[in-house]
Design goal:
Blueprint: H1 3-9, H2 13-24, H3 28-37, E1 45-50, H4 57-70, E2 75-81, H5 93-97, E3 107-113, H6 125-134, E4 139-143, E5 160-165, H7 170-176, E6 186-189, H8 197-206, E7 213-215, H9 224-233, E8 249-256, H10 260-269, E9 276-280, E10 285-291, E11 296-302, H11 308-316, E12 319-327, H12 330-339, E13 349-350, E14 356-360, E15 370-374
Parallel strand pairs: 1-4, 1-5, 2-3, 2-4, 5-6, 6-7, 8-11, 12-15
Antiparallel strand pairs: 8-12, 9-10, 10-11, 13-14, 14-15
Helix pairs in contact: 1-2, 2-3, 2-6, 4-9, 7-8
Length: 377
């Protein structure tokens, strides 16, 4: 691990700030540092706060961060602001509104410019969230700019999506239900002390949304404790079929190779860097991990003649061996698969990096060997 990455892991706020700037500007040294840090990511709870303009997202994020600090949790806030036409940077409105936290070393606040990106996010938001996760933050709160119906990209980056609504939106719920409404894990009716909060909740239920609804007055802290509790247990909440936020996360592609030493230079020529190497004794395989922008490539070399990878290479030659997905609850996923008659190749056991995993037979997964990995808590 380089000196920059080491300082970030040790909690050096200045080093983290430099890396954040570098990642947003796509500087090679910062991206290399991010790749070195990526194996340390996976422990943070990443929460998206989205909703239309004027819903009070910033005030809600501010109150949620304060509540998390009261519980001793460290927090990174990534506030995506509109791009300044003069400088190309963020307008910094969110950072100005959150000045009460400026002296708290447990909160890291970063405003990010959209820089022309659609969907309510910056193009670097995913990398920035991974950086904060790898830096050891307990929670990463991502606040989008004010969004409309079809701006749902946030659901692909976070574990929990909070959609903030306000009284007076009753007529709008029917109009936007086909888009952003469907990615919500939790609805927050902010400014609920104003007339119309009852109607918003009734409209949500009438349109068939069954997610938890929190009535909040963020300026007074009302509803924040309830929201915090729901955010903490959100992966176990029931969600509507087809929601983007309910999908497993793609983790990596496993590629069988005859020799790691021969295969790695090719990937390095494309800009990849090996961040982790390991021998998994139970599978009799040598592993090299190469992070991509938002996932990984796992190169697999047999460590013994009777390794499953050896048999794969003898039968099919080098190539795609498996696809790996991260799931919030591996045991629950296994129960559902068994109930549906799927064939599993092993009981949950630790693999590369110590993560629990199971393999699903290709006959049950459309012809591809599928690995399911327990998502880090």
């Amino acid at each position: 691990m380089n000196d920059w990455a080491r300082k970030i892991r040790e909690g050096d706020a200045r080093a983290l700030a430099r890396a954040a700037t570098g990642v947003e500007n796509r500087e090679p040294a910062a991206l290399d540092t991010l790749r070195e840090l990526t194996p340390s990511a996976g422990s943070a709870r990443i929460v998206g706060i989205t909703g239309p303009p004027g819903a009070g997202k910033s005030t809600l994020v501010d109150a949620l961060a304060a509540a998390l600090r009261q519980h001793g949790k460290t927090v990174a806030i990534l506030a995506v602001d509109p791009t300044s036409r003069a400088t190309g940077g963020a307008l910094l409105g969110d950072r100005i509104r959150m000045q009460q936290h400026h002296a708290d070393a447990g909160i890291f606040i970063r405003s990010m410019a959209t820089r022309g990106a659609a969907g309510g996010l910056s193009r670097a938001t995913g990398d920035m969230a991974r950086l904060m996760d790898a830096a050891g933050k307990d929670y990463v709160l991502i606040e989008t700019v004010g969004v409309g119906q079809d701006e749902i990209e946030i659901a692909d980056l976070v574990q929990v999506t909070v959609l903030v609504l306000v009284p007076g939106m009753g007529d709008d719920i029917q109009a936007i239900k086909a888009g952003i409404m469907e990615i919500a894990d939790i609805f927050v009716i902010n400014k609920s002390d104003q007339p119309g909060a009852d109607r918003v909740e009734l409209e949500l239920r009438a349109e068939g949304f069954h997610q938890p609804i929190v009535r909040a007055v963020a300026t007074e802290g009302t509803g924040i404790a309830e929201l915090l509790e729901l955010v903490g247990k959100a992966p176990s909440l029931p969600r509507l079929p087809g929601q983007a936020g309910n999908l497993p996360h793609f983790d990596h592609l496993g590629i069988a190779v005859q020799s790691l030493e021969q295969a790695i230079p090719f990937y390095e020529s494309l800009g990849f860097a090996v961040t982790h190497r390991e021998t998994v004794a139970t599978e009799k395989v040598h592993v090299a991990m190469l992070p991509t922008a938002d996932s990984r490539i796992e190169l697999l070399e047999p460590s013994a003649p009777d390794s499953p990878i050896s048999k794969f290479l003898e039968k099919r030659g080098p190539g795609l061996h498996h696809v790996a997905l991260r799931v919030p609850d591996l045991n629950a996923a296994i129960e559902r698969l068994r109930a549906g008659g799927a064939r599993l190749l092993n009981e949950p056991r630790p693999g590369a990096g110590g993560h629990l995993y199971v393999f699903v037979h290709p006959a049950s997964a459309g012809g591809v060997l599928l690995e399911l990995i327990q998502e880090s808590a």
